[in-house]
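Problem statement: downstream parser choked on a complex file, so we are re-checking the raw output for the adenosine monophosphate run. The parser issue turned out to be on our end (a line-ending mismatch), but while we're here, posting the original submission so the record is complete.
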Amino acid sequence: MLAHTIKEVREQVKKWKQEGLSVGLVPTMGALHAGHLSLVEASVGKCDKTVVSVFVNPAQFGPNEDFDKYPRTLEEDVRMLSGRDVLIFAPSAEEMYPSSELAKQVPLPAQGESVDFALIRHCEEGVSPMRQSSKSTALTGLLRRLLCKLLAMTKQHKMDNSPQNNAVSFNLSTFLSSTFVVPPRFYTDKLCGKSRPGHFDGVCTVVAKLFNIVQPDYAFFGEKDRQQLIIIQKMVKDLNIPVEIIACPIVRGENGLALSSRNKYLKNKEEALVLNKVLLNIKACYDNGIVDVESLTETAYSFLNKNHSLEYLEFRDKDDLEIKKIADGNTIVFIAVKIGEVRLIDNLLLESS
Ligand code: AMP
């Protein structure tokens, strides 16, 4: 079953709930592989009904990231899920983020103009329909603050109005007037969030929207994106969202490489094995009694060569992401490496063996 609109999903879920059936949600960005399918299996095993969302969420991509290039393979995804009793929800970006009247009033940058400049111009000009009452002055102030926040988030944006930039244009004009879910900075200013400012705001926003659309009893997330999992667990707790988050283990290829939709862009898969090799070596050292994080970190360097650009290798607590100086059974080792243009992440919990 394939649905493209929120209305269709809501109607279907309503029927299921009236029948007393439990509902599981598996949020994905598509380009499905065995890692995603393990989440689907977990949901189908636990819940009466499963919704798999397939949506490349523009709100979680930064200006210089691979939103345009991200693989979109809906036909193949539907084929992979056929034979499984699931509802696939594949909305358009407009369905998930409809532009409001306010968004339409915010100008996109003119040819060659930077977004910074267009927003500053807009802040200075104000939004004309809102200038008319004292109540609207407060609103304009609010809007101004919102714009300035967005300005900070988009400060590297430089763009023209060429068709290739449509996706980014959509991003800006729509998000100017959308409500965002902003998880605590303590959780998002580190690891992946450090090089991807605003990424987890986009993730939490779309996941919260999916929770509101599907109203699942359970939602399934992979430990592959461990920081994301921890942040979503925190959001659910803090916002009292009535859903239970189920964490699913990382699915790897035979060679140990964690499956990822981005693996298909790797020119040399061998180089990508470095992430798992580093993690396994750290685990072996830890199992042999080395707990000093500085020493454990040093063991990684013998595996890295000029083709690996190490973004981070960090030891953090599995619940609150606090940094660890001494490794223990609650420590997760996080690694991110760029291999050519492809950025890969992996992690490992140092459970006591
Ligand atoms: P994505 O489509 O990359 O946003 O991933 C959708 C969900 O699948 C997320 O919860 C990921 O953590 C999970 N996932 C992706 N790759 C894997 C994997 N190799 N093993 C387990 N879960 C995965």
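For whoever reads this later: The chain is about 40% helix and 15% strand.
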